[in-house]
């Protein structure tokens, strides 16, 4: 578990599938991702089971549920890109009614601190579409550097947008 000032980041469990359905059935939350819009509670439960299985396969927690006052308000994680070389992805999703309260920043900062202090990761990569100022700001504020801008790099339902690739390099003492 990761504890921040206001949040707890915990291993996914089915107890929170109902709360997460509110996140993943809201198109505004997932529109800049390739995640499908969930239409049923069963789809949400299956998605949570998938995250549980991924953590189990890797023998560690790579995906976390974000809790705020005991309620699941989102999810975040760092899936392996090339674990042998210490390369991981980075993502977060937050229920819309919790936007603009600093909770996305707090969750992302807590997750990044966890990665730096508790893993052997060497580099962490994240993407955000150029018209999503909140994600661009969060990634920049926690120390990610713009690595590359890819025109037309995001395409969902014929919505083609510029994709900004970020990198956070972790320097470890030999």
- In total, the number of strands is 10
What does the radius of gyration come to? 16 Å
Question: What strand order characterises the main sheet?
Answer: 1-2-3-4-7
Structural class: alpha+beta
- Architecture (CATH level 2) name: 3-Layer(aba) Sandwich
Figure out the total of helices. 5
- List segments where confidence is low: pLDDT < 50 over at least 5 consecutive residues: none
Overall tally of domains? 1
What is the end-to-end distance? 28 Å
Overall geometry: globular
In this structure, how is the largest beta sheet organized?
5 strands, antiparallel
CATH H-level superfamily title: Gcn5-related N-acetyltransferase (GNAT)
Q: Can you give the mean pLDDT?
A: 93
Kindly estimate the percentage of residues that lie in beta strands according to DSSP: 25-35%
Per the CATH scheme, the topology name is: Aminopeptidase
State the order of secondary-structure elements, H for helix, E for strand.
EEHHHEEEEEHEHEE
State the helical fraction: 25-40%
- Using the coordinates above, name the CATH class: Alpha Beta
């Amino acid at each position: 578990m990761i504890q921040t000032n206001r949040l707890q980041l915990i291993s996914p469990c089915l107890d929170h599938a109902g709360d997460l359905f509110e996140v993943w059935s809201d198109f505004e939350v997932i529109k800049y991702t390739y995640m499908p819009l969930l239409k049923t509670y069963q789809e949400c439960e299956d998605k949570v089971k998938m995250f549980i299985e991924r953590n189990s396969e890797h023998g560690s927690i790579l995906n976390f549920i974000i809790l705020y006052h005991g309620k699941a308000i989102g999810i975040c994680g760092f899936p392996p890109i090339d674990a042998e070389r210490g390369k991981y992805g980075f993502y977060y999703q937050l229920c819309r009614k919790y936007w603009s309260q600093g909770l996305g920043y707090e969750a992302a900062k807590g997750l990044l601190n966890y990665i730096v202090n508790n893993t052997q990761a060497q580099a962490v990569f994240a993407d955000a579409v150029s018209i999503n100022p909140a994600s661009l700001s969060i990634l920049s504020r926690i120390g990610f550097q713009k690595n590359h801008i890819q025109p037309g790099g995001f395409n969902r339902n014929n919505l083609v947008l510029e994709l900004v690739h970020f990198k956070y390099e972790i320097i470890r003492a030999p």
